[in-house]
Amino acid sequence: MNSTPVLHLPFLPPWDWQQFQRHFALRLLPGVETLDANGYCRSLRMGSVTGWFAVRPLPETNSLELRISPSALAASAALVTRVRRMFDLDADPQAIATHFAGDAVLAPLVARAPGLRLPTAFDPFEQAVRAIVGQQVTVKAAVTITNRLVARLGEPLADAPASGPQRLFPTPEQLANADLSAIGMPAKRVAALQHLAAAVADGSLELHVEDGADALVERLCALPGIGPWTAEYIALRGFGAVDAFPGADLGLLKSPVWGPGGVNARELKRRAEAWRPWRAYAAIYLWERYGAAGDD
After folding, report:
1. What positions carry a catalytic annotation?
2. What are phi and psi of 30, to 5 degrees?
């Protein structure tokens, strides 16, 4: 990897690599991603371009080092944009902290872990797949099933680094047309996954947030098998939508900040109104508090 071009992507501190390391460790797809204590690498597909990229933190310079495979250089500008979003490098942590400073629930969490970011998937379609697979199961179970999808359908990466990712995540077309029997999901969830993949493949579902996260949530909820939690989670984790808030999420409802028994969804939705326009960061802090147990 040392012969590949190197870029430095700056950010405003604080920014904690360990937050991202924990996030990826819980969700890692070994064929598609590799992770160690000081870096992350994954395969990529952007249009007709395939390849890989690798990042490692450079805390002494408040930047993230990005290496891009020669095969992916044609997409380097778009790739930089995606990596910046993936690692939330454009956030202003002081503005977010100031917004939450008067909130009795969030202010102590921000003081305890200043500058938490919003880890976002590299590819929104991949995140949508993960969200559907993850309905009503643990993160660990969802990763196991998603790994089966990669093993069954993922194409070998042409210029795979020796110790890096070896496969590409399946395309919408591949998933839509695959035989997913015995993959380990209920038939209705398989149908929901393949309906989503077919809609993305034929263009009837526009998977973007250019017209706002609420519009994306509405489009997703119109598909069979996708409810508000899944749609909001895709907006949050797939696009880094800063005000997305999956208010029915168990980790948010059971976060220890609420005390024994947690809080109900209606009360959480009411409280969350005060956190706009940064509700996704509120979710990150609530999950972080919940999550040394970790299913966020």
Report:
1. 249
2. -60, -30
- pLDDT tens by residue, 197-226: 999 999 999 999 999 999 999 999 999 999
Distance CA 198, CA 190 (A): 12
CB 153 within 8 A of CB 145: no
**What span, in angstroms and rounded, lies between the C-alpha atoms of 142 and 149?**
11
Q: What are the distances in angstroms from CA 136 to CA 22, 46, 139, 141, 295?
A: 22, 30, 10, 10, 11
Check: CB of residue 206 under 8 Å from CB of residue 111: no
Helices 139-153 & 17-27 angle (0-180, nearest 10): 70
Tell me the C-alpha to C-alpha distance, in Å, between residue 164 and each of 29, 30, 86, 154, 289.
12, 9, 19, 15, 32
Neighbours of 217 (CB within 10 A): 22
Q: 248-271, pLDDT tens digit by residue? A: 999 999 999 999 999 999 999 999
Helix (H, G, I), strand (E, B), or coil: what is residue 70? helix
Please tell us whether the domain made up of 124-290 is placed in CATH 1.10.340.30: yes
Structure tokens at 184: 């380990």
CA distance 168 to 171: 9
What is d(CA 37, CA 17) in angstroms, rounded to the nearest whole number? 9
- Which DSSP letter does residue 55 get? E
